[in-house]
Design goal:
heterodimer, A: 295 residues, alpha/beta, five-stranded antiparallel sheet, B: MetI-like fold, 0% strand, globular
C-alpha cells in the first residue's frame, strides 16, 4: 500500500511525461474520428482513507466500481460521499491540507503514485458537480469544447462536431442549437447542469463522476438528468453520489452505502447490486437507513 | 395586562422605531451627501476657473517667461502622458502577476505575509517613493529624467493593482476553478483562460483607479522628473508633468500663471476621465458580445 501526501502538482510546471499511454481526452485529436462505443473501465478503491489536515473523514474504504455501469453512493450527510468521489479523480487534494492513504486503481493502474499527473487522471475521469458551474466568460459552445480547446485543439470542424455530439448526448442540443454563442450562464439551472455534463463528456472520459448532480434542480430537470444517466451508462462508467435513495434505486446498477462512525469518519457499510441493497440488505444499518429509520 | 394596554404599548414602540429609522436614514443620507459634495465642488471649480484659459494654445505651446502673455503647458501634457503610460506599463504587469501569486499560489500564511508587505508599500508617503527613485535612477544616470519619474509612478501603482487583482481573483467562484481542474485543465491554464477572464473587468477597473491616482501625483516627481520648459520625449532628460506645472504656477505670484494652473487642472481631469470612460466603454462592448 502506498502512502502519499496529496499535493497538487506544482502549478506552472509542465506536465511530466509518464510511461502510460496518453489520456483519451488528448488522443481525440489523433484519432480524428471519435469512436462512439467506449471501452469504459473499472475503478478499484483499495483501503482508502481521506483526511483534511489531521481530521479523518473517510476510513479504510475498499470498493470496486464495475465498468459500464452506474454505481450509486448513498449515505447520511457528512459521511464523506463527496470526499470519496473527489478522491477518484484526485480532486480531493485540491483543498489545502487534504491528503489520502491507500490506493485507487483506474483500469488496473494506480493513480496515487509519484509520476502520475493528476491532470491526466482528471482527463480520463470527468466530473459533474452539485451546483452547475459553467465557465462564466464563455459561450455555450466554448463551454462544451473548453476541455478540448484548452488542450490546444484548434480544428474548427472537429470542435463543431464534438460540440454537437456532446450536446445531443446531454439532451440539450435542441434547446440551444440556435444560440450556441450565447453565454452559458444565461441558461436555466437544469440546462446549465446538462451543459456541464456535455462539457464533461466532450473530452471522452472513461469514467464520469457525479456529485449530487440533481440536488439543486427542480423535479423536471432531475428527471431529465436521470434519463441522461440511463442513456450514458452504455458508454461510460458512472459513479453518482446522491442523498436521494429513490434516485439511487432508479438509476444505479450497484449501490454502496456509507455512514458516519462514532469517530466522525465515514466508512463503507455494504455494497452490492442495487436491487439487493434495497430489498435484501445484509446489514442492519443499511436496512435502517433505506427504510428511513435514520439519516 | 389588558388588550388595550398591549395595543397602546405596541403603538408607542412602533412610533419610536419609525422615528429612529427616519433619524438614521437622515444621518446616512447626510454622510453620503458630505462625501459627494467635494467631488461636485472640485469639478465645478475646476471647470469654472479653468475654462477661461482653456484653449488650443494651452496644450500645444511651450510655457513663456513669466510676465509675458500666452504660452501653454504642452511639455506637461506630453510628459504626463509619457510618464503615466510608462509607469503603468512597468508597474501593472508586476502588480497583476503579484496579485495572481498571492491568490493562486502563495498559500495561507505566505499570502497574508505578502498582502501585509503590499499594504505597507501602499501606505508609504509618495515623496519617499520619489526619494527612492532618486537613489535608484537619478543618481546613477546623473540627471533628473522622465524615466526616474516613470519608475516612481510604477512603484506607486503596484500596491493598488496588486491588491485589486488579488481581491478580484478571490471573487471568482471556487466552483469554476474546480470545473476547470476536473476537466483536466492544468492550474496555470485555468488561471490564464478561465479565472483571469472572469476577473478581468474588476482588474481593469483597478488599473484605471491606479492610473488616475498616479496621473495626479506631484510629490514623487519633484526629485525625479523635476520639470521642463520644453517638450521632450527623451526619457533621459528632465520631463514636465501636469501636477508639477500646476504646483509651480499655482504657487507663483502671477495672475496669468494662476489662470493656466486652473486650466491645466482641467486638462488633467479631462485626461483621466477620457481614459477611464474609453476603457469602460471597451469593456462593456466586450461583455455585451457575450450576453
Amino acid at each position: 500500500m502506498s502512502v502519499m501526501t496529496g499535493e497538487t502538482t506544482a502549478p506552472g510546471t509542465d506536465i511530466e511525461p509518464t510511461d502510460r499511454p496518453p489520456a483519451r481526452g488528448i488522443a481525440v485529436a489523433d484519432r480524428g474520428e471519435l469512436a462512439v462505443e467506449h471501452a469504459a473501465v473499472g475503478v478499484e478503491i483499495d483501503h482508502l482513507s481521506a483526511y483534511y489536515g489531521q481530521h479523518l473523514v473517510l476510513r479504510d474504504i475498499t470498493l470496486t466500481v464495475q465498468p459500464n455501469s452506474v454505481t450509486a453512493i448513498i449515505g447520511p450527510s457528512g459521511c464523506g460521499k463527496s470526499t470519496l468521489i473527489r478522491c477518484l479523480n484526485r480532486m480531493h487534494e485540491v483543498t489545502p491540507g487534504a491528503r489520502i492513504q491507500g490506493q485507487i486503481h483506474l483500469d488496473g493502474d494506480p493513480i496515487y503514485v509519484p509520476g502520475v499527473d493528476p491532470v491526466v487522471v482528471r482527463q480520463r475521469i470527468g466530473m459533474v458537480f452539485q451546483r452547475p458551474n459553467p465557465f462564466p466568460t464563455m459561450s455555450i459552445f466554448d463551454n462544451v469544447v473548453a476541455g478540448l480547446k484548452l488542450a490546444g485543439i484548434k480544428d474548427r470542424a472537429l470542435l463543431q462536431e464534438v460540440a454537437e455530439r456532446s450536446l445531443r448526448r446531454a439532451a440539450l442540443w435542441d434547446e440551444v442549437k440556435d444560440k450556441l454563442h450565447a453565454a452559458g450562464g444565461a441558461l436555466s439551472g437544469g440546462q446549465q447542469q446538462r451543459l456541464c455534463i456535455a462539457r464533461a463528456i466532450a473530452v471522452e472520459p472513461e469514467v464520469v463522476l457525479m456529485d449530487e448532480p440533481a440536488s439543486a434542480l427542480d423535479p423536471m430537470s432531475t428527471l431529465k438528468i436521470e434519463e441522461l444517466i440511463d442513456a450514458l451508462r452504455t458508454s461510460y462508467t458512472i459513479v453518482i453520489v446522491t442523498h436521494n435513495m429513490q434516485q439511487a434505486a432508479r438509476v444505479s446498477d450497484r449501490t454502496a452505502f456509507l455512514t458516519v462512525g462514532d469517530d466522525g469518519a465515514g466508512y463503507l457499510v455494504e455494497d452490492g447490486p442495487t436491487r439487493q441493497i434495497f430489498t435484501n440488505p445484509q446489514r442492519r444499518l443499511t436496512e435502517d437507513y433505506i427504510s428511513g429509520r435514520f439519516g | 395586562m389588558s388588550a388595550d394596554a398591549r395595543t397602546r404599548l405596541g403603538d408607542r414602540r412602533i412610533r419610536r422605531r419609525r422615528a429612529i429609522d427616519r433619524l438614521m436614514r437622515g444621518l446616512l443620507w447626510l454622510a453620503a451627501a458630505v462625501a459627494a459634495i467635494p467631488l461636485v465642488l472640485v469639478l465645478a471649480f475646476v471647470l469654472i476657473q479653468g475654462l477661461p484659459a482653456f484653449n488650443l494654445a494651452l496644450i500645444t505651446q511651450d510655457p513663456v517667461p513669466a510676465g509675458f502673455p500666452g504660452g501653454g503647458v504642452a511639455p506637461a501634457v506630453v510628459g504626463t502622458l509619457i510618464m503615466v503610460g510608462l509607469g503603468t506599463l512597468i508597474g501593472t504587469p508586476v502588480a497583476v502577476l503579484t496579485g495572481i501569486y498571492i491568490r493562486e499560489y502563495a498559500g495561507g500564511r505566505g499570502a497574508t505575509g505578502i498582502r501585509f508587505l503590499i499594504d505597507v508599500l501602499a501606505g508609504i508617503p509618495t515623496i519617499a517613493v520619489g526619494l527612492f527613485a532618486y537613489g535608484l535612477v537619478v543618481v546613477p544616470m546623473g540627471t533628473f529624467s522622465g524615466l526616474a519619474g516613470a519608475v516612481a509612478l510604477a512603484v506607486i501603482i503596484i500596491p493598488t493593482v496588486a491588491r485589486v487583482t488579488d481581491e478580484m481573483l478571490g471573487l471568482v467562484s471556487g466552483s469554476v476553478r474546480e470545473a476547470a481542474y476536473a476537466l483536466g485543465i492544468p492550474p496555470w491554464k485555468t488561471i490564464v483562460r478561465v479565472t483571469m477572464p472572469a476577473a478581468a473587468t474588476g482588474i481593469v477597473t483597478g488599473i484605471l483607479l491606479g492610473v488616475a491616482r498616479i496621473a495626479g501625483e506631484t510629490a514623487p516627481l519633484i526629485f525625479t522628473a523635476l520639470g521642463n520648459q520644453r517638450v521632450t520625449a527623451s526619457l533621459a532628460e528632465p520631463m514636465d508633468a501636469l501636477p508639477l506645472r500646476i504646483w509651480v504656477y499655482a504657487s507663483g505670484p502671477y495672475d496669468a500663471w494662476h489662470q493656466q494652473a486652473w486650466a491645466a487642472s482641467l486638462v488633467l481631469v479631462l485626461l483621466v476621465l477620457t481614459f477611464s470612460i474609453l476603457t469602460r466603454f471597451v469593456l462593456r462592448r466586450r461583455a455585451a458580445r457575450l450576453a
